[in-house]
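Pinned message: reference record for DUSP domain-containing protein
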Amino acid sequence: MAPIERLTPDILLHITHYLNVKSILALSLTSKKFSGLIGDERVLRHLVKTDYNITYKDPLLTWRQLYLQLQHHQISLCPHLGAIPDELTTSKRRLATTDPRRPCDLCQTNPATFLSLNPSSDREVCRPCASKEEGPSSVQYNMESQSLYCFKCSREVGGQGSNANEKHKGTVILDQLKRPRATADMILEQLKRPSNGTPALSPATSPPPPVTDDQRRRSEQLLYVQELRQEDMTRKYYLLEKSWGRAWMLFRTREGSPSPGPITNNKLARPNGSLDPNIRLPMDKYRPAPETHADIISENLWSYLANAYGVMGHAYSEDDIQGPEYTRLRICVDDFKHSVELYP
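Predicted structure (C-alpha cells):
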C-alpha cells in the first residue's frame, strides 16, 4: 500500500482543500480508495466556496448539483449574500421594524432607508451612503420596500425573482426583518401547544389569534435554523422518518406546500413495533444523505414536532438502539454527533 493510502479520511479531506477541481478529479482516478473524493459533499462544498465564493444553497440541492449549475453557467448567485448570518441580532430585528425616517448615520442629511446587515454594525444609511459600503455591508436591507439589495451586484437579491438558492437564503433573512421578534415568539409559543388541546382560558382572557400556514411555515423555518446551528451534541437524539422529514422541509421552504400531517415512523419499525436494526442512518449532521431511512434530530426539536403535529406509531430515540443487534446504528449516531467537529 502506498504511503498516501494510509492517510486517514480527515487528513485526506484536509489535503483536498489545497487542490482545485481538476487535481481532485485526477486524484480520485488513481485508486479505489480515492474514487469517492470528487463526489464527497464536504469536498464539493469547499469547491463551491473557493471557485465561486458561494457559501449557501437551496436545501433541496446537493453541493455537487450546485457546483455543476455554476460551472455550466446555468445560474448566477450573489456571492455577498453568504456573508450575512442566518440568525440576525435582536437589535437589527428591532431597527428593521421601526420608522425608517431617521437621518442617515453617515451624512446626517438624507433620511435613512437602508439597514446594514454587517454582523458588527447596525448602521442606518441613505442610498448614496449605502452604495459606498464594502465587505459584508454590500448587501443591505431596504426598510421601505422590505427587500435585500446588493450594491456590489447592483440588484435586488433573495426576492421573488431570484433563483431557488438566493430565494431560500433571502427568505431566512427577510422573515426575521419583516416583523417584530415578539410576534415570532408568540407564534412559536402557540405552535408549541399540544395538538390535542390548549390550556384553559379565563373569562377575561382573549383567545390567541389563529396561526396561518404562512406564519407556521416562517416560524418553523426559524426554529429549524436555530436548531441546525446548535452544536450541543450531548443531548438525547430521536429518529424521524425520512419521508415525513422531507414533507416538513417542503412545507417550511416552499410556499403553498401542504402541512405534512402527523409524524409516521412506520417505515422504521419491525412488525412487533420495535426499531428495525437494518435501517440506514446519516453519519454527518451537515451532509445530505438521501439514501437513508431516517433523520437524526434533537430531543428539543422532536418534542416540538410531536406536540405540533402529533405522532402515529412509535417514537424512537437513542434508548431504542441498545444491544448487539443495534451496534451498527449506534456507530452511525455516534459518528453523527462527532461530525460537527469536522466543520470550522
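Pinned by admin. Summary line: Residues 16 and 24 are 7 Å apart (CA to CA).
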